[in-house]
Amino acid sequence: MVAQFVPDTDRSDAGTTSAREAGGDVLHVSGLTVEYVTGGDPVRACADVTFTLRRGEILGVAGESGSGKSTLITALTRLQRPPAVTTAGSIVFHPRDGGPAVDLVTASPKTLRALRWTSLSIVLQSAMDALNPVMRLGAQFADALRTHDRTLSKDDAWARAAELLATVGISGDRARSYPHELSGGMRQRASIALALACGPELVVMDEPTTAVDVVMQRQILAQVLRLRRTLGFAVVFVTHDLSLLLELADRIAIMYAGRIVELGTARELYDDPLHPYTRGLRDSFPPLHAPLTRLTGIPGTPPDLRRPPSGCPFHPRCPRRFEGCDAHLPELVTSGRSDVGGHAVACRLHDPTVRPETTAGGPA
Ligand SMILES: Nc1ncnc2c1ncn2[C@@H]1O[C@H](COP(=O)(O)OP(=O)(O)OP(=O)(O)O)[C@@H](O)[C@H]1O
Ligand code: SF4
Ligand SMILES: [Mg+2]
To answer: Ranges for the ABC transporter domain (predicted)?
Structure first.
C-alpha cells in the first residue's frame, strides 16, 4: 500500500486540459453488461456500465477485489473468453482520423485485428502474459510494428524497438534480451512500450504496477504521464489502489459489485466523495499531507455476485443506509458540478426525489 496523495490539479499535463485541447471523445461505453455463464446463477460482473473517455484523458477505475475491473478491461478490448459473455450494451470507438465509429461489441474479428495495436492496446498486470518468453524483445516489437506497416524493413523495426525501449528508460541494446533476462520492473516497462509501439489512441492498463515495488511504480507512472503528454493517447487505468489514481488520473470511476457507483475528477473524489463506499475507500489510506488519523476501512466484504444483495448492492455494508436502500437500486446520476462532464453518483442520499428521513443506522 502507498500513502495517500493529494491530486495535483495544477500540473501541466492534467487531462482535463489535454482532453480539451485534443477535442472530442475517443470512447463511449453505454449500458455494458458482462456475465459469466457457468451453468448455475450467472455472475453479472459488469452491470450497466456507462462512461465516456475523452482524447488524451486518463480514466482511473478503482474498486475492491472482485468488483469487476478486469472484466471491464477485457470486455473493452474484446479479449474476454468464455464463460464471459457481453449480454448488453455498446463500446463505441471514435477514430482520430474522423473515420466511421466502431462498436467493439459487434465488430468483426477482421475489424478488431485492424484496430489492435494501432488504435487500441492493452497492458496486463503480469508483463509475462504480454511478452513471448522465447522471443527477443526486439523481435516482438518488430513483429507488432511490421504487422501494421508492411513497408518497414526488419532493420528499421529493430531500430524503432530500441527507440521505444529508450522511451521507457530501458537501454536500446536490451532489445536483444529475452524477457527472462530483464527485471520485473523492466519487463513491465517493456510491455508498456510494446503497447505504445504503433501509436494507439487508447491504452487500457489492468493493474500494470501491482507486481513492482513502490519506487518502480513511481517511475512507471511518471513515464506513463510523460508519454501521454507527448503522444496524446487516452488511458483506462485499473487498480484497487485509489490513492495511486488520485495522483495519476484525470477522472476516476469507482466500481462496486460490477457497477460504477461514482465518477468524477480526482479532486472531486478526494475532496468531496459523494458515495459512502468511495468515502470508505478514501479513508482507508493514510494521508500524506495531513496529520495521521485512525484508518477506518470498510467493514464487511464485497457481495457474492452470483446472488447480489437486493436494492443498492452496498446496503449491507453502508453506514448511511436508510429505509428503502435494500429495495431500490440507485441509478448513476450526474450532479453537473464537474467541468469535465459532471460528478456522478449512484446513491439515494443524492437523489432529490428520495427523502432519507429514516436511517437504519448502518450495518449491525
Ligand atoms: N471465469 C470466471 N467464471 C466465473 N466468475 C468469474 C470468472 N472470472 C471472474 N469471475 C467473477 O467476476 C467477478 C469480477 O471479477 P474481476 O476479475 O473482474 O474482478 P476485479 O475487480 O478485477 O478483481 P481483482 O482486483 O481481484 O483483480 C468476481 O465476482 C469473480 O468471481
Ligand atoms: S443508496 Fe443507501 S445503502 Fe446505497 S450507498 Fe446510498 S445510502 Fe448507502
Ligand atoms: Mg482484476
So the answer is: 27-282
Cell of 99: 473515420
Number of Cβ within 10 Å of residue 167's Cβ equals: 16
Q: To which H or E segment does residue 18 belong?
A: helix 15-22
pLDDT digits (tens, 9 = 90+) for 102-124: 999 999 999 999 999 899 999 98
| Ligand 1 touching residue 348 (CB < 6 A) | no
Q: Three cell numbers at 44?
A: 453479472
CB 360 within 8 A of CB 74: no
User: Crossing angle of helices 137-148/154-167, nearest 10°?
Assistant: 110
pLDDT band, very low/low/confident/very high, at 100 (cuts 50, 70, 90): very high
Atom of ligand 1 nearest to the CA of 43: 5
Q: Give the H/E segment covering residue 35.
A: strand 25-36
Residues whose Cβ atom is located within 5 A of ion ligand 3: 69-70
pLDDT higher than 50, residue 167 = yes
DSSP secondary structure code for residue 207 in this structure? S
- Global pTM value: 0.89
Q: What grid cell was written down for 177?
A: 534480451
